[in-house]
Amino acid sequence: MTITVDHRPEAPAGPPKLDSTRLRIAQQETLDTPRMAYSLLARMMFTPVDLLYGRQGSFTKFAMLEIIARVPYQAWERMGYWAVHRHAGSSALAKRVFERIVEARSDQDNEQWHLLIMQDLIQRHGIRQNWLLHRVAPWFISFFYYHVSWVLFLVRPEWSYRLNAEFEDHAEHEYMTFVAENPDLEFMPDPGTYAAEYGRFRSVADLLRQIGHDERVHKLGSLENVENPRP
Predict the structure, then answer these.
(1) Residues 6+ apart with CB under 8 A from 197
(2) pLDDT of 78
(3) CA–CA gap between residue 225 and residue 157 (Å, rounded)
(4) pTM here?
(5) What are the CA-CA distances from residue 47 to residues 40, 51, 60, 125, 163 (Å)?
(6) Angle at 154 between CA 46 and CA 91, to 5 degrees
(7) Distance between CA atoms of 25 and 2, rounded to whole angstroms?
(8) Which residues contact 47 (CB under 8 A, 6 or more apart)?
């Protein structure tokens, strides 16, 4: 017997893709907006990254940031599945929790595309990566961030969302500032390695602006969850 499903819920489409003009506007908006007041926990992550990879932006530093960026979404997904099991007796509540899980997974996938793009740019530019700095260090920082996100979510979910908003705000400004300080990126064509999945842009500058705008969308989503931390 064949069963036909009339409607299947789709995962969120992810942050909107902007054209070149709108990306330039988004960049200027970021540059004109002060950074958030970062907490001690946020600075505890930013400081070692700056010490290890430099205060200035770079493809290798961005790859490191993207490895870390996936972590809170992974922690929230894990906690979400526990909550679904705990609220199995209330289908409506379990459904709302699961919708949060789907949202977190979509954001995590978006960050994964960012990482793949950064790794592709690193390889294309022949940048050598150190095993200690680019394998071991990211694991330790991610391990720390994962457990901090997990514990904060367990105690007060809004604290975990706030920390992620600070991280995304930092990443947004890092990308947009890097593009502003490196005008040669305007003349570097987007290789389009992941164009089918992420989109093709006029230049690497626009590609990085799009990633920076994605981080802004993630930040705003986390700030919304600060106001409404539980489904």
Answers:
(1) 113
(2) 82
(3) 9
(4) 0.90
(5) 10, 6, 16, 26, 15
(6) 125
(7) 51
(8) none
